[in-house]
Give the backbone structure.
Amino acid sequence: MATRKFTFDSYAGPDEAFHFARRQLAGGDPGSPHSHDCYELFLVERGLARHAINGRQEVLPTGTLVFVRPGDCHALAGADRAGCGLLNVMFRSATADALIARYGDDLGGRFFWRAGTEPDSYHLEGPRLERAINVALEVQGARRGLLQIETFLMTIMGRVVDIQDGARQGAPEWLLRACRAARTKSVFRGGAAGFVAVAGRGHEHVCRIARQHLGMTPTAYVNRIRMEHAAMLLGRTDMTVSEIAEDVGIENLSHFYRVFRQNYGATPGAYRRRRQLTRETQ
């Protein structure tokens, strides 16, 4: 049986740069795989997904993020009776071509440009999954323009997927170890000082190498992790904002509000209300 090939124009209008869908898939067989002439990113928001991909099947848990290329042949269904929830974004090949032309040194061989038979995929959990869902839901209500899809993709690839995976070639092992350690509360609560301590190098040296390989200071790196943890607590608990600020190691509440807004474009209260509305619609 010939593989079906879907076109981007069958999902989106001629003036739209991307298509967004939030779907609930019933459990069962994925059915006949298909290919398409565009790129696709999907996130398993909840449940287990059964993914038929390039001649084999796999079960994907909640938090799996997959970068599907035009040459991939795949199909999806829920893996059990409960089914699964998916967030799905499709966009034109010209957008991917423009991104790799501009950022090839950072993106080449990864994400949508991974070589080989299997598409690139990542498992997200905790704060990282919370951030991915938040970014996807932001684009759901956005204008279907080129600026919006490029911003979304660069946020997913550059800020949601662990930045240590994107550390520039030649990053020293001690820096990668520090990045991994910084995801633990005992380290990120200490801020930049905690990062420097686990790096085991002098403060100025750590700052210089972090800028060179991560493109940011230890303070910015740790604050990003802190705010991801804070966003998870805002979305999933009834803790007060003051309690959350203390939990991530920021004593000055005004500073916490400022850093959170810088990372999420909203106050903690506004973010919490948005996530509550999202849960009510699930």
User: Anything to note?
Assistant: DSSP finds eleven helices and ten strands in the chain. The chain has two domains: 4-161, 165-281.
